[in-house]
Design goal:
The complex is a heterodimer of chains A (about 525) and B (about 300). Helices cover about 35% and strands about 25% of the residues of chain A. Chain A is built from 9 helices and 19 strands. In chain A, the strands form 3 sheets. In chain A, strands 5, 6, 7, 8, 9, 10, 11, 12, 13, 14, 15, 16, 17 and 18 form a 14-stranded antiparallel sheet that branches. A 3-stranded antiparallel sheet of chain A has the order 3-4-19, with no helix packed on it. In chain A, strands 1-2 form a two-stranded antiparallel ribbon. In chain A, β3 and β4 form a beta hairpin. In chain A, α2 packs parallel to α5 and α7 runs antiparallel to α8. Chain A is elongated and about 125 Å long. Chain A starts with 18 loop residues before the first helix and ends with a helix. Chain B folds into 2 domains: about 210 residues, Rossmann fold; about 55 residues, Alpha-Beta Plaits (2-Layer Sandwich), CATH 3.30.70. In chain B, strands 5-6-7-3-8-9 form a 6-stranded mixed sheet, sandwiched between helices. In chain B, strands 11-12-10-13 form a 4-stranded antiparallel sheet, with helices on one face. In chain B, α3 crosses α4 and α8 crosses α11. Chain B is elongated and about 75 Å long. Chain B starts with a strand and ends in an 11-residue tail after the last helix. The chains are: A alpha+beta (about 525), B alpha/beta (about 300). At the A-B interface, α1, α3 and α4 of A face α2 and α3 of B.
């Protein structure tokens, strides 16, 4: 009954079969489920929509006397174009041409407010003694007393010794150690054209040159004077700073050069500035021809955000991003768990028995989808939410084109890496619910915890958790010359953008490794 | 016979349960090999091992002389249908086949050909979620044929098919074998394989029960049996039984007699003046042959047995 039949030979041409074919197959799977394609759009739209909602909720109000308007107090812009704090008590005289000023600082003391109130409310009654580390008292040469003017200064500080600083961002240390009555400091500043040189001395006889600053745009007649200021001070582990005040005693004042004005003049620089200060804490008192006592509040340094001035430090963008991310996590997980649920994974593995390659091809698809959704969503969310924030009167730090590109591309990469992480977890757990919950917990919980932990614990968490990658969205400037709570609640991430992204990629790599191992080891 | 599926002493346990206990068989070209056994006998597990999805604890499964995992273009060697429900319900039939074709570097044109072959061209654009089980089986067959393979492995392809579909499937399987393909078809119902299988591999409790051609099996089951048609059923049975025959009632007027030659049956009935209208040598159905074969298996059925498909 059975006749020998020659074995079947197909005349179908043999197709190319490499990784590219696998990626094409997985892409075909993805694009042919309409719900998934729509979800990619949802990821981007949710990000944009919630960012705008978040930005709309943030309103800046600026009160001048009893009239309040939408907006924010003026922000000084330094010679380098960056926002700066430029507020202090200033006792000065014009200086025509070259000259020098020498003083002795015999004491520096300070106090800070015990509660944080809205700006321009009297807080004198609740001052507590304590000198801010970056409280400053010293002498300076300045182009004029307009906001953000070029300057060079020599100063004693609360706990950073003598410094030569100029144009807000430049800093050279001098003699270390604090100023006391038994250990006063002599400071000297000389001007020769555009060059301003600073010196310090512990005895008024032996002088040490600290450095020379070359100021741009200095006119023949500049200003030379004494100043005292004291920045927002952070009690240990607090997230918001308290405005503070510092008081210094100057004597042995010696001023040389062509002095057009006969007497000293005092002024509160930057009184209506955005920088939080102790209201009406500034005063100056000339004790004799060559001795002053001066109190000041404010800072002369780069402006930083978050804990100091409380601007929208990217929260609105982050909120939108996290919402979009949750949708993406569900999508990326389903891309593999739906195959497990229906047994389709067997069809997949029969068509391509090399299991690591299947996971790699799927990772290429969800990674690209995540990158694309992140890129488009973030680009729109960033641009629109910043416009909304500005329209609502908020101060936001300017972003260079490069920084914007870093945020947009970096967030795209972040979403791509998260999608691959979700895929790997889905493969390892083979169930949607468990994988989605795990992945969301990894990316949302650190933010929740970070908001409740102390700044140092929060920063450790943000170094170690996959959320480190959100450093790619950091917009707030940081400065070693300013004490601040540089933590995630204030929009600061402890790692650099790319190092943070690398932490997330590390998690993703481990998850992929484990899921490849399980995929190879388990029966399908 | 050139073996195209070659399974040698496969053993596999799932925890305390022995799923495969030394299964060996071959399925050759030009044959529809029926792979038969009760639910839980280990048919699906064997197929998954052949396809490299499950790993056996012991033994080798080869396709075209190679382990499945070593095949460079697997779907051009073996087409398989394990579970007709393994579909994304939102994906159309055509798109389901399209990703399979692309994974093998085959063009979309090939998809249209197999849709035509499986009789699904008219519903190609419809979401597979709306398909009846019978249509899903056809789609599964189409998927198995995408690579135009010389070997086909089909797990319970008759499940959920209407009578018309079963007839189509039988004819389709015969046609595939006639082209020289090796077709391994599992079923827990022997009757489904009637008129299509030419060879049978029967397993029970993870063990091989029989590996035989259908012709031999039916021949053996038919041997020495006589079909008898008579209006006096009980008298005939009494007479024949007292002469040493085993008599089974198969209908209101029919008996199957074994242990006596047909000439002897005619003689005894004539002598006893019992009327009869027909005496013929009996041809067993595949179902009867199978029941005969597995009677012992059923009697000694263990309380513990591996669940097919877990």
């Amino acid at each position: 009954m059975t006749m020998p039949v020659p074995p079947y030979r197909s005349d179908l041409p043999v197709g190319r079969r490499g990784f590219a074919q696998l990626v094409r197959a997985e892409w075909t799977k993805f694009r042919t489920v309409r719900g998934w394609v729509i979800t990619v759009g949802v990821v981007a739209l949710v990000t944009v929509f919630l960012s705008i909602v978040g930005a709309s909720g943030s309103r800046g109000t600026f009160c001048n006397g009893s009239t309040c308007t939408t907006g924010h107090p003026p922000v000084a812009i330094g010679p380098g174009g960056e926002p700066v704090a430029d507020s202090y008590t200033y006792v000065f005289r014009p200086l025509a041409g070259n000259g020098s000023l020498t003083v002795r600082v015999s004491s520096l003391s300070g106090a800070r407010t015990t509660s944080i109130g809205p700006p321009n409310t009297p807080l004198h009654s609740s001052l507590q003694s304590g000198l801010a580390p970056w409280a400053k008292a010293g002498i300076l040469v300045r182009k004029n007393n307009g906001p953000g003017s070029a300057y060079a200064a020599v100063m004693v500080t609360g706990s950073h010794g003598v410094r030569l600083q100029y144009d807000y961002t430049h800093d050279t240390p001098g003699d270390p150690g604090p100023v006391t009555a038994s250990s006063p400091r002599w400071l000297r500043i000389t001007r020769a054209g555009d060059a301003v040189t600073g010196y310090d001395s512990t005895d008024g006889i032996h002088w040490t040159k600290i450095g020379t600053a070359y100021l741009t745009g200095l006119l023949t007649t500049a200003q030379v004077g004494l100043f005292v200021t004291s920045p927002v001070s952070f009690v240990s582990e607090s997230r918001r700073g308290n405005p503070s005040v510092a008081t210094a005693s100057f004597d042995q004042i010696a001023l040389r050069g062509d002095l057009p004005a006969a007497s000293w003049k005092g002024e509160q620089i930057g009184a209506a500035d955005i920088y939080p200060t102790v209201p009406s804490a500034s005063s100056w008192h000339q004790r004799s021809a060559d001795a002053f006592t001066i109190s000041g509040t404010g800072d002369i340094a780069p402006l930083v955000g978050g804990g100091i001035i409380g601007t929208d430090a990217g929260e609105s963008l982050l909120v939108g991003q996290l919402a979009g991310l949750i949708v993406l996590i569900v999508l990326a997980t389903l891309f593999v768990t739906s195959e497990y649920r229906r047994g389709l994974i067997r069809t997949t593995l029969v068509a391509s028995p090399r299991r690591a390659r299947i996971l790699a091809a799927k990772a290429v698809i969800v990674g690209s989808v995540g990158f694309f959704a992140g890129l488009v969503g973030t680009a729109l969310a960033l641009v629109i939410s910043r416009k909304v924030l500005v329209a609502n009167g908020n101060f936001i730090f300017p972003l260079t084109g490069l920084a914007q590109a870093r945020i947009i591309v970096g967030t795209g990469l972040l979403l791509g890496a998260v999608a691959v992480l979700a895929l790997a977890l889905g493969t390892a757990l083979r169930r949607s619910a468990g994988a989605v919950v795990t992945c969301i917990a990894l990316l949302v919980l650190p933010f929740v915890l970070g908001a409740t932990l102390s700044p140092s614990a929060s920063n450790w968490l943000m170094r170690l958790a996959p959320t480190a990658a959100f450093a790619v969205q950091g917009t707030e400037p940081r400065s070693a010359l300013v004490t601040n709570a540089y933590t995630v609640v204030n929009g600061y991430y402890p790692l650099s953008p790319w190092a943070g992204l690398a932490v997330l990629c590390g998690y993703t790599a481990v998850a992929v490794g484990v899921s490849v191992w399980l995929l190879r080891r388990r029966d399908a | 016979m050139e073996a195209t599926i070659e399974v040698t002493t496969l053993r596999k346990r799932f925890g305390p349960i022995v799923a495969l206990d030394g299964i060996s068989f071959q399925a050759g070209p030009g044959q529809v090999t029926g792979f038969v056994g009760p639910n839980g006998a280990g048919k699906s597990t064997t197929m998954r091992v052949i396809l490299g999805l499950d790993s056996a604890d012991e033994g080798i499964a080869l396709v075209d002389g190679q382990p499945y995992l070593r095949l460079s273009h697997p779907l051009s060697h073996v087409g398989s249908l394990l579970d007709a429900g393994a579909l994304h319900p939102a994906r159309s039939a055509r798109n389901h086949l399209l990703w399979i074709a692309y994974s093998q570097g085959l063009p979309a044109r090939r998809v249209d050909e197999v849709l035509e072959d499986a009789g699904l061209a008219a519903v190609a654009g419809r979401k597979a979620g709306g398909f009846s089980l019978g249509m899903r089986q056809r789609l599964g067959i189409a998927a198995a044929l995408v690579g135009d393979p010389p070997v086909l492995i089909l797990d319970e392809p008759f499940n959920g098919m209407d009578p018309e579909g079963i007839v189509w499937m039988r004819g389709f399987l015969r046609a595939l074998a006639a082209e020289g393909r090796a077709v391994l078809v599992s079923s827990h119902l022997m009757s489904e394989l009637e008129d299509s299988a030419t060879h049978l591999v029967v397993i029970g409790r993870g063990r091989l029960v029989a590996d035989t051609s259908v012709a031999e099996l039916i021949g053996a089951a038919s041997e020495g049996r006589v079909s008898l048609r008579t209006a006096a059923r009980s008298q005939a049975a009494t007479v024949l039984a007292s002469a040493g025959a085993t008599v089974a009632v198969t209908g209101s007027e029919t008996l199957t007699v074994s242990g006596l030659a047909s000439e002897r049956v005619v003689f005894l009935l004539t002598e006893a003046t019992i009327p009869f209208s027909e005496v013929s040598s009996h041809r067993a159905t595949l179902e009867e042959a199978y029941m005969e074969l597995t009677r012992d298996q059923v009697e000694y059925r263990p309380t513990l047995h591996a669940e097919d498909g877990r």
